[in-house]
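Notes from hallway chat w/ T.B., transcribed later so I don't forget. T.B. wanted the structure written out for a chain they're using in a teaching module, and asked if we could keep both sequence and structure tokens in one place. Agreed to drop them here.
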Amino acid sequence: MMLASLRTTLDLFRTQKVRFLLTVSGIFVGVASLVVMASLLEVGQGILQQSSAQATGDDVITVQNDWQANQNHPEAKRLTRADQEAITHSTLLSPETTVTATYGMRNRAASFDQKEYEPFTIGVGPDAMSVFKLSVETGREFTEDDFAEARRVIILGAEAIDGKPKPGDVIRVEGRPFTVVGVLKKKAEMGPGGPWSWNQRLLFPDRSYMINFDPTRRPSTIVVKVVPPPEFVGMVKDYALATRTVLDILLMRGRTVKSYEFEGVSDGSGTEVIIVNTIRALLYLTTVFSMIVGGINIMNIMLVTVVERTREIGLRRAVGASRQAILQQFLSETLAITLVGALFGLLFAVGTLGFASWALTRWLTEWPFRVELWSVGLALGFSSVIGLVFGVYPAWRASRMDPVEALRSD
């Protein structure tokens, strides 16, 4: 029955292309828009979450000493390099996680061009530039050799020294000479500024800082940048909070008192989920309405078809076809028309997504090509339901025709 209905549908497409296209236009648009929007929303949400997290710092967790806990509890332990190593090599964190640390973070006497300064000094690890989103305007970043050999080199914040040193100049910090290798681009300030701004700091390779200024080798902060794996579903903030729970477990090993605290991502739920879900609901409702309108269109065309094929129905009834057989015939034809329209919509959606992926990658940002399989299944399933629901009435009308009256029709 279904194969015969499919042949009838293909014959309609070959002989009356305009009529066929008008019949399936609603289903075509509905299926295509559902698949396209599902993919663009899912991929776009991931990209938006990643960009938002990087802009707001939700992808960075900072661990620092809780000085009140350290003062109130003699057995409390400060952060150590062992803590940093435990986090770095933990298998509980995803391989994409980046762990770095800062050292010192205090003002020190410095001199340049016979002028005295007291800039904020900080030792940083090799991944600091990427984790803190820093870039140099002139000169270069620290190299592997700078870290490995603990070279006396520094990178200046854009406003750290009024004399505007250039790469190659020498600045003395507490009497020790350090060569400027780079100057940071000015970074937008948020918060109190001053030493909390990267524009006011002198950056040292971590080992160089420890050797020259801080033999305790204790990090002031441990910084963890999280990158959710591709299979993670949810906000970056959710993943960061889950990572923070793991960090709590790792850091409490060997501790009886929680002597550290977290900064960065907050527990408060933002409005991003509400906004995204509202947009998703509105777009999907639009798709549903489009497919319902398409079903109404198919029902109208099938009613016309029943009238046009009145004599055929009469002949079939005259040779013994039951009402149930007529009902099944027209139901299967309606379903076949709907599914063919849905398949055309799927092909169009795949082509549209391919072009959108190419265009967005070229002119906006890296945008992977992806078809959400659940949307394909949902589109085909919902199209089938639409075809059956809106095909019932025309099929019932055809099955209720009196064979004698049908044979008399012109």
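Follow-up for T.B.: The chain has three domains: 2-51+272-408, 58-91+226-264, 98-223. Might be a good example for the class.
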